[in-house]
């Protein structure tokens, strides 16, 4: 891809951030709308979990395929296809007549969304070649997540109260269409120097692993452990098959060699932990504010601002810190703040006081604001540029998998704890184990940030990059075609 002017690079970044905005804001808006959807479509707690997880699950299973496909046939082409599918899926969600239809249409959205974020990150990685400039661009990218958190609950609250929950999907339509037209005009096409072959067996195994695991977790409280054990077994078999099958392929869907890099492995696990905390945090907070405190959707959205605003301001600061000092300090701040937030709710019942509730939300927002930039930067910066799409897709998959597991696990814990009790009388007690899990996720971020950012870890990243580049050079011409 030819070198672009600074102004053109900024425009490409803005267009890519538009795609992130609609994908990110979709979840924060939908969380505010959950109680309204529950009443209108007569959904159970597990039904609400599926309304969220059907989207994140499909994203998680298709992101790596989309990333490698974009590297092969063209990033701009795949990106535009994703915008079209996501916009159509949003329109269908707004017309869903029942919960089953909504879940199916959310999956259509997710197919499009899988072609957006990892491909956009690959476009950014190949547009911003200077490491410091790239870190700042990724920091801006992370700030958009904060913007979606700040705007999502407020916009969602206003729309739910004034028009109804269906209108929360309308926000995606003008942004998606504008991003599509701007991409067509201004984003240059790019692809990896060598095409990579598809891996249908690996893709099926990933779908089986993520799908069966999520189903087992969500349905366990209502169906019982005996009923979900076959699905847990399917997930285990799929995982073992992936570990055996993928290393034998010259161009696997999941290149397990990436995980020889300690920073990359650390970023992957950090992404799972951080986004599991986010998914569980939003799910528990929304149900508490509206179903226990009895707040309206708008007032619940206002209560989410102490979390959203720090995320918005801390994300670009984190990007600058990563560019100037590396990922360690942002990860330590993120892990510490998220851990303390979880402990406030788990040990001190922060929900029961406005002061502690505000402080818990504030700390979580600071932690999440600092965590995104070091994850993304660490995942893609140590890899050869030809592998940028796949590396970014693995990082994005980890995020979506984490969010899927967060909603599934904390929702299952909540459902088990309630066991016939109403939200008003049993929520705080039933949610306490979930908050301890969230605190554990924050502690994992803290420990991983300390362990995976030292000199030893950086040496493993350098060796891995050299091995990947050597393998690409040695690959016979046409082997990926």
Strand share of the residues? under 5%
Q: Over the alpha carbons, how many angstroms does the gyration radius reach?
A: 21 Å
Total helical segments: 17
Order of helices and strands: HHHHHHHHHHHHHHHHH
Described by the principal axes of the CA atoms, the overall outline is globular
What level of helicity do the residues show? over 70%
CATH class type of the largest domain: Mainly Alpha
Low-pLDDT runs? 476-481
CATH superfamily of the largest domain: MFS general substrate transporter like domains
Strand count: 0
Characterize the main sheet.
none
Mean pLDDT: 85
Topology:
Layout: H1 6-41, H2 45-73, H3 75-94, H4 99-113, H5 117-127, H6 131-162, H7 172-186, H8 200-223, H9 225-245, H10 262-292, H11 297-303, H12 305-325, H13 328-348, H14 354-381, H15 388-418, H16 423-451, H17 455-474
3D structure, described in words:
Helix 1 runs antiparallel to helix 2, helix 5 runs antiparallel to helix 15 and helix 6 runs antiparallel to helix 12 (305-325). The chain is globular, with a radius of gyration of 21 Å. It folds into two domains: 6-199 and 249-474, Up-down Bundle (Growth Hormone, Chain: A), CATH 1.20.1250; 200-248. It is mostly helical and 481 residues long. It has 17 helices and no strands.
């Amino acid at each position: 891809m030819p070198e672009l002017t600074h102004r053109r690079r900024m425009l490409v970044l803005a267009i890519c951030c538009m795609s992130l905005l609609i994908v990110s804001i979709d979840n924060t808006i939908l969380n505010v709308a959950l109680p309204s959807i529950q009443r209108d479509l007569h959904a159970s707690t597990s039904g609400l979990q599926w309304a969220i997880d059907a989207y994140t699950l499909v994203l998680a299973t298709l992101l790596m395929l989309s990333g490698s496909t974009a590297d092969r046939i063209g990033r701009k082409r795949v990106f535009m296809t994703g915008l079209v599918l996501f916009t159509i899926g949003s329109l269908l969600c707004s017309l869903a007549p029942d919960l089953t239809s909504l879940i199916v249409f959310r999956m259509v959205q997710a197919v499009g969304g899988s072609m957006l974020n990892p491909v956009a990150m690959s476009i950014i990685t190949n547009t911003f070649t200077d490491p410091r400039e790239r870190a700042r661009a990724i920091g801006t990218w992370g700030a958009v997540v904060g913007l979606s958190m700040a705007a999502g609950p407020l916009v969602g609250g206003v729309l739910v109260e004034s028009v109804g929950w269906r209108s929360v999907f309308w926000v995606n339509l003008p942004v998606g269409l504008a991003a599509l037209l701007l991409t067509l005009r201004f984003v240059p096409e790019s692809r990896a120097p060598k095409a990579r072959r598809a891996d249908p067996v690996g893709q099926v195994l990933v779908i089986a692993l993520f799908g069966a695991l999520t189903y087992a977790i969500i349905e366990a409280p209502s169906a019982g452990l005996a009923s979900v054990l076959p699905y847990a077994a399917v997930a285990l078999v799929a995982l073992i098959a992936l570990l055996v099958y993928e290393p034998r392929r010259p161009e696997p869907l999941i290149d397990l060699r990436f995980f020889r890099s300690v920073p990359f492995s650390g970023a992957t696990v950090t992404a799972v932990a951080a986004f599991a905390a986010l998914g569980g945090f939003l799910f528990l907070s929304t149900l508490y504010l509206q179903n226990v405190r009895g707040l309206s959707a708008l007032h619940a959205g206002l209560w989410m601002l102490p979390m959203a605003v720090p995320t918005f301001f801390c994300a670009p600061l984190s990007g600058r810190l990563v560019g100037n000092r590396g990922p360690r300090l942002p990860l330590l701040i993120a892990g510490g703040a998220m851990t303390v937030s979880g402990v406030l709710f788990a040990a001190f019942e922060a929900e029961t006081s406005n002061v502690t509730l505000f402080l818990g939300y504030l700390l979580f927002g600071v932690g999440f604001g600092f965590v995104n930039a070091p994850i993304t930067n660490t995942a893609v910066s140590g890899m050869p540029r030809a592998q940028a799409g796949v590396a970014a897709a693995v990082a994005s998959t980890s995020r979506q998998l984490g969010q899927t597991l967060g909603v599934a696990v904390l929702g299952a814990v909540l459902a088990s704890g309630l066991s016939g009790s109403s939200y008003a009388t049993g929520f705080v007690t039933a949610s306490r184990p979930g908050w301890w899990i969230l605190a554990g996720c924050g502690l994992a971020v803290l420990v991983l940030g300390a362990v995976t950012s030292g000199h030893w870890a950086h040496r493993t990243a350098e060796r891995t990059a050299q091995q990947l580049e050597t393998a690409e050079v040695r690959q016979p011409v046409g082997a990926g075609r």
